Amino acid sequence: MEDEQVASHSEDVQQEPQESVVSDALALFGLDTPSVVEDPAGEVEQEDEPEIDPPAIEESKKLIVKVDKQDREVSDDEIPELVQKGFGLDKERARREKYESALTRAAKLAGYDKVDDYLTDLDTIEQQAVKQKEDSFNTLRQEMIDEYTAAGWDPTQLESFLDNHPLLAQAKEVMEREKATQEAQKQQQTEQAKLQGWQDLFAKYPQLTEELPADGSAAPWFTPEMQRLVNDRHYDPIDAYRLVHSDKIIADERKRTEQDVIKQQRLNKRAKVETDAPADDETAVPNELSSAFALFGLDPKAAKKYIKK
Question: Which of 51, 72, 102, 170 gives the lowest tally of CB atoms within 10 Å of its CB?
């Protein structure tokens, strides 16, 4: 028993110097001494460090939606913005349906079954409404003059009185303002139609833009005759250009047709030459050799194999 205690004590004494040496060596390099745990069996085990799970990376989910008959991926960050736009679109659709319903009612009240026909005649309807107001005002004014003249009033003084009457003057001012607005709209539509006519001309004959002077003066092709047709007789620019420059247009078209024909002929000749040209692997047979083969009743084409390339 005493021998076992002595042996155990000697082992502890030997282990302590070893641990001290290891600790000194680790401290020399700036390292910490690892902690040890002694299990019941007497074996020394190094304490395991707790495992730290890496932070989980959340992947952004994407939603597949169909836009214009095509699938589109939408991330979670885009969903709130798209939802707001969707609500705004629903509101805009409701507003449009409301306006369309009101426009349909207005067309029905005006005696139109189709809204398109009503919109086409809308300018005419406005002109008729202004004309009707003006006629009603003039009729009422004349009736008042006739009535008071029959009662003994001086017609000249009566007309002066009516012209200076505040209510009648205000009504006349409103009618004149509506008439001026309508004429301005009509003038704007006319100018827009003219601009569209010139755009159509340049689209059909783009070479005309190359002859436009930089100083803003009239182009050489915009002759006085063409100016008279466009400005005075209100011809469409394309029609006026065709009438004035018909000879030039015919000559240009004829020249263009001739160039197309020549180009097509060249392409046909090139295609024929490429088709008739012998292949690279074919070898021409001399006439003497082919004649000799034919003399002995042999196929002249068979002579190719006897020709050295």
Answer: 51
Q: Do 159 and 145 touch, CB atoms closer than 8 A?
A: yes
CA 301 to each of CA 59, 150, 159, 269, 306: distance values in angstroms, whole numbers, following the listed order: 76, 125, 117, 28, 10
pLDDT digits (tens, 9 = 90+) for 73-110: 777 777 777 777 777 777 888 888 888 888 888 888 88
pTM of this prediction exceeds 0.70: no
Residue 305 belongs to what domain range? 280-309
Angle (CA) 98 99 102, round 5° = 90
Confidence category of residue 6, pLDDT binned at 50, 70, 90:
very low
Please say which residue of 149, 169, 189 terminates a domain. Answer: 189
Is there a contact between 172 and 137 (Cβ–Cβ < 8 Å)?
yes
Domain-embedded: residue 202: no
Interatomic CA distance for residues 219 and 213, integer angstroms: 6
